[in-house]
Amino acid sequence: MQKKSDEKQLLAGNRFDVHAMELVGSDGKTYIREVVRHPGAVLLLPILDNGDVVMIENYRPTIDQTLLELPAGTREPDEPPEITAERELVEETGYAAGKLQHLHTYFSAPGICDEQMFLYLATDLTAGDAQREAVEQIENRIVPIDQAMQMIRDGQILDAKTIVGLSLYQMMSPTT
After folding, report:
1. Residue 2 falls inside a structural domain
2. Which of 59, 61, 93, 148 lies deepest, with the highest CB count within 10 Å?
3. Does residue 26 belong to any structural domain of this protein?
4. Does residue 174 or residue 18 have the better pLDDT?
5. Burial of 45: CB neighbours in 10 Å, binned 0-12, 13-18, 19+
6. Which reaction does it catalyse (predicted)?
7. Strand ranges across the sheet with 41-46
8. Residues 50 and 30 in one domain
9. How far is CA 150 from CA 28, 97, 104, 164, 169, in A?
């Protein structure tokens, strides 16, 4: 299948839009696929001086569960990901980073969405007050990195972006 240039906007949302994309199949027929058009997001891996990771317990109303996650947030349209990373770290955790290092960029769910995730290592952290949105139900949780990896293996961490972020960090770490 190859993409045609024709897309029709089905929904204009606050954080993303939904489009209908026309694709031409190898059989010559036209197929319609719905796709989420997303401005992208950042994922933060805040590491304290002792090596522990700042995670959040985040209530997700879409699934009616509280998940243990790395802090993350949606970019404003055309906003540089570094700016989003600085803002979201403070908003969700209260910590400010003295240093941000881009580790990786990946697509979150390319079968249905064009969202790119920008993973940043945040170090030289300074604690402060979180500036959470009124609808967010978030609590900080400090976790040793080895314990976080064990929690992935034990099925206690279910958030995909968090699994990706922690796993990439572990793979890239010079001590492994």
Report:
1. no
2. 93
3. yes
4. 18
5. buried
6. GDP-alpha-D-mannose + H2O = alpha-D-mannose 1-phosphate + GMP + 2 H(+)
7. 72-74, 41-46, 116-126, 96-107
8. no
9. 49, 26, 22, 14, 14
The yes-or-no verdict on residue 156 having pLDDT over 70 is yes
Q: Which two tokens stand for residue 64?
A: 């009616």
> What are the structure tokens assigned to 90, written together?
């403070």
What pLDDT is attached to residue 4? 55
Helix (H/G/I), strand (E/B), else coil: 114: coil
Q: pLDDT by residue (tens digit) across 45-56?
A: 999 999 999 999
Token output for 106 = 């990946």
pLDDT of residue 1: 47
Reduced to 3 states (helix: H, G, I; strand: E, B; else coil), residue 61 is coil
Predicted confidence (pLDDT) per residue in 101-152, tens digit = 999 999 999 999 999 999 999 999 999 988 877 777 899 999 999 999 999 9
Query: What is the Cα–Cα distance from 75 to 62, expressed in whole angstroms?
Result: 20
Q: Can you tell me which residue has the tokens 């803002």?
A: 87
DSSP 22: E
